[in-house]
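dumping the sequnces here before i forget
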Amino acid sequence: MDLNSIYQCVITGERDRIEGLIQSALSAGCKPDDIINNTLIKGMDEVGQKMKDGDLFVPEVLMSANTMKTGLELLKPLIEGEERESVGKIAIGTVAGDLHDIGKNLVVMMLEGAGFEVIDLGVDVEVERFVQVIEEEKPDIIGLSALLTTTMKTMGETVQAIGGKTKTMIGGAPVTEEFAKEIGANGYAPDAVTAVDLAKSLIS
Amino acid sequence: MWNRCSTSNETDNISVQSKVLSDSQCKRLHNAVLEVLERTGAEVYCEEAVELLKKAGCWTDGLRVRIPSHLVERAISTAPSRVVLADRNGERRLFLEGNNTYFGPGPTNPYFYDLETGERRDVLKSDVCGVAKLTEALPNMDFAMSLACISDCTPGLADVHEVHAMLQNTTKPIVTWAYDVNNLATIISMCEAVAGGQEELQQNPFIVVYAEPTSPLRHSKEAVEILLYMSEKGLPQMYTPGVQGCATAPASMAGVLVIAAADNLAGLVINQLKREGAPYIAGAVTTNMDMKTMIHCYGSSPEFSLMHAALTDFIHYLKLPTWSTAGCSDSKVLDEQTAIEYSLSIYSAALSGANLVHDCGFLETGISGSLESLVMADEIIGMVRNIVKGVQVDDESLAVDIIDKVGPGGNFLTEDHTFKNFKKEFWIPRDIDRDIYRKWSTKGKTTYGERLRARAKQMLQESQPEKLSDDVLQELRGLVDKAEENKA
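..and the predicted 3d for all of it:
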């Protein structure tokens, strides 16, 4: 069985083909863990790079992310008990007062595509909810999103309330690197692909 | 590369179009043209043509020929309403019919901007190779022209050398010019060598020759001989007066149109008398002379675009294929002025539905040109074509089911419908910038002009036009050498 075809399938985002390809890989004796690490995650790494190079468009990247996720869901039950190491755990949400979520959803999909375990808190997330999630789920990172210049302020309050209990990363159209420094967040990413790189670097 | 939306034919009923002249205005213009040709007539500096005209029923007095209306009307009716141009391999590509609009570069500029040094210098044969290579690679350039009157060859043979350069570097149809009928014979022989014979070239022509009367109402020997030669060969001919309001035509737009059409239709009469049914593409460069600088405005005058569109309406009314002008500028360098003049003229030409639109890449009123200008014109055409194609309205595009599935507050980014349609429905820029500030700044804070230069360099390097066979190359070389000997 050629694992390369699964890898290519992730890159081209052919969601309908991934299940069949993984089934034949499994029948041929490939290990689920091997398939995840050497085809699905590697494929998404390549997709991220292509996106950065300007060779892929967002809908294509999302198709790849969905393909990867379909594959992952198929393989996950097979490795339960073996305690597969997740790349990391992130809780993410749009801050209080802000209902915008396209950018945040994009980051969620890209993080999942890269193998992160993601807790999506949705939109208009109160400061207390973020703090509560840290206690309950113990994520490695909290991600905050805002589109409005008026809700950027809430971002600062949220980061303050988290108070270094966990790492924080922020993003959104009006947000900048400087602003991240100003409010004491651990990182800023201008787009969904960079957000994955940032999350990886915050964890390592 | 070929752009799928080169034609608006398949979506004719939904494409965006404009009309400048109503049918009744066309009718009045037509009558005025017939009156000028019958009453004032024209000077024809070619004996054979005068004889043909006389025999057909024109009144002649030396060089002066007065053409009765019925002869003009007959010529309009015998010329084909459509001309199809093939590529170098004989595949039929450009359908000059209806409102299909195709774009290409211009001819005969003596200067060129060097892509490496940025200096304005004499134009060289190697520049024509570059123009042809870029034309081959650019998705919105549908035909080739030399964008040159080259300086580095035997005087009087630039036309032959330019076609020699183009034939080797692009498969797209070629529109070209000729000093005289001798050089034209060499050019046509070269094309026949590539096509594999005279009949092959006639059936699927990839060459159009461009000649110019000397407006107002004068037809030079050289120009008319080219008309007669192409007609006899049954190959597509363009006869394009350059008409300037206030100078070679009255100071009114309708007056410019009358001279332009009268000169063009006199050419058509000669062309059809020589051989009925010969393919002829009608049109003219219509503009005004600037009354301060005396330049022939080439893009900076709004009337330039307006009169071209009006003439296109008139030629559509006559049911002939049309020739027009756009993507050219009076600016000396590629700058903000160039971008304005290119954009407006290209948009106007596309809306008018002119079939063959030339002069993309011109600067300085057609005195110079550059590769980066051609790349810019190509991107503007891309944008314009996405406007002119119109809005598709059907079940698939109304997408009511998808809207219901996504529901309030959802997003459409991950829908299969988006994946399938985003490139088809929405234009994607090549060098027009849409980066966020931070990214633009990390990439070096480039201006559009800088990116165009980089793109031209990259495309020039990567373009690999299909090669001609060694036999054909040798034959072409032989024909060029023979023309050189005859000149010596």
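The longest strand of chain A covers residues 89-94.
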